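Page 42, continued from yesterday. The earlier attempt failed because a stray header line got pasted into the input along with the sequence. Redoing it now with the clean sequence only.
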Amino acid sequence: KLGDFVRCGYDLLDFYSYIYENEEGDYLYFRFYGLIVEIAEEEFWYPAETVYKVYCIDGHYRFFLEDEIILV
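This time it went through. Structure tokens are written below.
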């Protein structure tokens, strides 16, 4: 819901970004933290998908799908 503090990451990998590993060797796809500021359920995004606008702690707004967000 609006105002929730979440951990986010993109499901698809970008060739121009780094992939970080933790101690267990798992990749850290969920590397952004922030607050949900808007929830868009409109069809021009993805049909039957909820898109969240997140204000990340680095000062940038980013958009994530529902399965790319974990509640902290």
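Notes: The chain has a mean pLDDT of 77.
Reminder to self: strip header lines before submitting.
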